[in-house]
Design goal:
The complex is a heterodimer of chains A (322) and B (507). Chain A is 76% helix and 2% strand. In chain A, the strands form two sheets. Chain A has a two-stranded antiparallel sheet with strand order 1-4. Chain A has a two-stranded antiparallel ribbon with strand order 2-3. Classes of the chains: A mainly alpha (322), B alpha/beta (507).
């Protein structure tokens, strides 16, 4: 069973099996090749860096979603949280110095996530219901605090953030670097840290986890809080990109995040999924949007194609489990 | 039975089946007469279940021939099988939890019936069917609210609601206590008298010799022979099953049992279950057996001590100090372990690898301050345990769902061996486990005891509990009714206490 890569590829039908097993990466590579062939603008640094900038916010939210989904839960509130927290950050950055504004936004995100976490872990509310309620509440609060219109950055701290979010280091957009760092951190935590092990154990069998002496409630609580903190990170990034916080930000992001996690091969029942595959899921979704934009496909057909890709990716995963 | 010239009701000849490159069955033959109870034996993974699944239409054979009443059949799915008169009670319960007992029993008929259902009639029919089996279950109850024993009865009733010609029972008695098992056997004899052919799969050889007329043994996908029960004995069958001589099913233990109890339980009463006024103690190195009928509260008692159920009153004393176990987390903190009876449901993590399963209780041993896991230590620990427990697997990265029942059980045990437990509760240590793996698990229990751990074994398997225990406590209706010392061990004594006949007070 512990075959090396070479053995896998050289065994009969090995290449096919390998491709099915790593289907997310396979689809990603196919899409990149396809995109490069079909459009000569695709492989320009401007386009690629735009693509990365577009996916970074949603990508960070997707990592939070992955961690929640690994426990067998779901977090529908992330999109609205991004809106509320973007508004929050815009208000805070105009009042406090930058580090304080950032820290407070993260803490508030963590706190809002904790509310879902508390309801799910300690009040035994269904994750779908608890986070659905939080989703409405956060969106509503966003509109209340912004009085319905965007809040612009007015201070040097805001200008610094805007500058940071729109620039690159070594050719990679700064916000994409933040996203990648979060992916790497999630990868390490899920693979090599007790936290990740327990999250996956809880998702694969909650009762067995409880009987193994795992603090199930604590971890279920934590994943929603972390998802909230990551939504705050995403909110800071998207607000900084546009120099403002708007209550309309993050519309339907929860759905894109779930889609990315699912395309990345995670199971909505929990216990299965990796950060690297979620990254691939995010990039695949981003790529589809990007290439369709380059081809001047209007946004409604884009949605149809996105849906089709989700179905295709999940069907492909079926072969893996057979 | 129109044109059937053969003396057999069912003839399966030369059946072969492989999944991918793994050959599961090779030219297997199985012949069953009308009105015969035919035992199908073999270790886990020998191919019994696959053979039955081919018969019932779950799997399709690669080659071979299945003849029922003189006509060749090849059911494409279980519905085909049922129409042909083949009913199977699978090991995994296949009931819909949120439907009533009656609805479950007639579930397969719903599709083909008229548009409107006469639920009153259906419930009445179901009730009659269950009553005729001699069990007490309300046909209008929801399956979710039934005990595991009752669920199994419903499963059997479901199989009988058809015009059954061949009835297959896969390990039907694993959850049954002796009284229920006897009721089941009485029913089987009735069915047999009606001319129904019964294929009976079990690991309990004593059962086989009580009820079966003939035996077919499978080993590694090949049938090693069919014979009449009268022509063989337990040793003979075991030899065919494992292909070697079996010295001693219950290995002897050379352990010096400590004087001072490691765990004392005083007047423990549960808040939500029937467990009440339970007092006992277990000493280091001792294997304490807990016997009793299904539903007598043995598992509930263990879960109560382990903190998985809520306590109303009572004290626990571990090594002379009073402890509280409000949750399993506390219990594990006090180094108390618990191996669940329902391995698949809450004992192991089926989709996770062996390594991840074993490590789950032992992160303090393999991780640093910030919770980062030292992978080298982890592998060392896990590979050690795999070797020590003789878990049959190509690597530590195999998912537990792909292991046989016996090996899964060893993984469930390994979880608690990787930490230094002081007391371990093992609920039904060998349910659904084959003979070879059983011995290994008994050896394991011995080894744990040798380390000075107090071992509490709960088991419905009489020979097993007498074979492994130093002392047996018998539970009846939530409390202990009697204690048996090794000299007093007998099925009769255990049974008497189990049904509430109080012989002498527990000290």
């Amino acid at each position: 069973m512990a075959l090396t890569l070479k053995q896998q590829l050289s065994s009969p039908g090995g290449l096919l099996k390998f491709l099915v097993k790593h289907n997310t990466i396979f689809i990603f590579v196919l899409l990149v090749i396809f995109s490069a062939l079909i459009s000569d603008v695709f492989f320009t640094s401007v386009n690629l860096s735009n693509l990365l900038k577009q996916v970074s916010g949603i990508g960070i939210v997707s990592i939070g979603m992955l961690i929640v989904i690994l426990t067998g839960g779901i977090d529908l509130s992330v999109g609205s949280m991004v809106a509320l927290l973007a508004v929050t950050f815009a208000i805070l950055v105009n009042v406090f110095i930058l580090p304080v504004a950032i820290l407070l936004t993260l803490v508030i995100g963590f706190g809002l996530g904790s509310v879902s976490g508390y309801l799910v872990a300690y009040q035994k509310m269904a994750p779908f219901v608890a986070t659905l309620a939080l989703m409405t509440i956060a969106r509503g609060l966003g509109f209340i605090y912004s009085k319905g219109s965007p809040v612009t950055f007015k201070t040097p701290g805001g200008a610094f953030m805007s500058n940071f979010a729109n620039n690159s280091t070594l050719g990679i957009p700064n916000i994409a670097i933040v996203f990648f760092l979060i992916v790497i951190l999630a990868m390490v935590m899920l693979r090599y840290n007790v936290f990740g092990r327990l999250v996956i154990a809880i998702g694969s069998n909650e009762e067995a986890s409880r009987l193994s002496g795992i603090k199930v409630n604590k971890y279920k609580f934590l994943v929603y809080a972390i998802s909230g903190a990551l939504a705050a990170t995403a909110a800071i990034i998207v607000a900084s990109r546009t120099n403002l916080g708007s209550p309309n930000m993050g519309m339907a992001w929860e759905l894109d995040a779930i889609a990315a996690v699912v395309i990345g091969g995670a199971s909505l029942n929990g216990g299965k999924g990796t950060a690297i595959n979620t990254l691939m899921g995010v990039l695949i979704l981003g790529l589809i949007g990007n290439i369709l934009n380059l081809l001047n496909v209007p946004s409604y057909p884009q949605q149809v194609v996105k849906g089709a890709i989700i179905i295709f990716a999940v069907l492909l995963q079926r072969f893996d489990s057979k | 039975m129109k044109k059937n010239n053969s003396e057999y009701r069912l003839e399966m000849t030369g059946i072969s089946k492989s999944f991918g490159v793994v050959s599961v069955l090779e030219h297997v033959n199985l012949k069953v007469k009308p009105g015969e109870i035919h035992a199908l034996l073999g270790e886990n993974g020998a191919g019994k279940s696959t053979l039955v699944k081919i018969l019932s239409g779950v799997h399709q054979k690669d080659s071979g021939k299945v003849v029922l009443d003189g006509e060749e059949i090849s059911p494409k799915n279980t519905h085909d099988g049922q129409v042909l008169g083949i009913s199977v009670v699978f090991q995994e319960l296949s009931l819909v939890n949120d439907l009533s007992v009656a609805e479950n029993i007639y579930l397969h008929k719903l599709g083909s019936s008229k548009f409107w259902m006469n639920w009153k009639q259906i419930t009445k029919d179901a009730q009659e069917l269950i009553d005729s089996l001699g069990f007490e279950i309300d046909a209008s109850a929801r399956v979710r609210d039934l005990s595991i024993v009752q669920k199994q009865v419903v499963e059997i009733a479901k199989a009988l609601s058809e015009d059954t010609k061949v009835l297959v029972l896969d390990e039907p008695t694993t959850v049954f206590d002796p009284t229920d098992t006897k009721k089941l056997f009485d029913n089987l004899f009735k069915l047999k008298a009606k001319g129904i052919s019964i294929i009976y799969i079990s690991h309990h050889l004593d059962e086989i010799f009580k009820i079966a007329d003939s035996i077919t043994v499978l080993r590694d996908g090949v049938d090693t022979g069919s014979m009449a029960v009268a022509d063989t004995n337990t040793d003979g069958v075991i030899r065919l099953m494992i292909g070697r001589e079996l010295k001693d099913l219950y290995p002897t233990r050379d352990v010096k049992i400590g004087e001072v109890p490691v765990l004392e339980v005083k007047n423990l009463t549960a808040k939500e279950t029937l467990v009440h006024d339970v007092s006992f103690s277990v000493r280091p190195g001792e294997v304490l057996g807990i016997a009793g009928l299904g539903g007598s509260g043995r598992t509930e008692m263990a879960k109560l001590i382990f903190g998985a159920h809520k306590k109303k009153s009572g004290t626990l004393i571990l090594n002379g100090k009073e402890i509280k176990t409000k949750t399993p987390v506390c219990a594990v903190g006090h180094q108390i372990g618990f191996v669940s009876e329902d391995r698949k449901e809450d004992g192991v993590f089926l989709p996770l690898s062996i390594r991840r399963n074993i490590s789950v209780t032992n992160f303090s041993g393999i991780s640093g301050k910030l919770g980062f896991i030292n992978v080298d230590n982890e592998y060392k620990n896990v590979l050690d345990l795999i070797e020590k427990l003789n878990i049959k697997t190509p690597s530590s990265e195999v998912d537990v769902k792909n292991l046989s029942g016996g090996n899964q059980q060893k993984v469930a045990l390994a979880k608690w061996l990787s930490i230094d437990s002081k007391v371990v509760f093992i609920d039904e240590p060998t349910r659904g486990v084959d003979v070879g793996a059983k011995i290994e698990i008994y050896n394991l229990i011995n080894e744990v005891a040798k380390k000075g751990v107090g071992v509490v074994v709960i088991s419905s398997d009489m020979p097993e509990i007498m074979g492994v225990s130093d002392r047996i406590l018998v539970m009846h209706e939530g409390t202990f009714y009697g204690e048996l010392t090794k000299e007093e061990f007998s099925e009769e004594n255990i049974l008497r206490y189990s049904i509430g006949e109080r012989l002498k007070q527990v000290v």
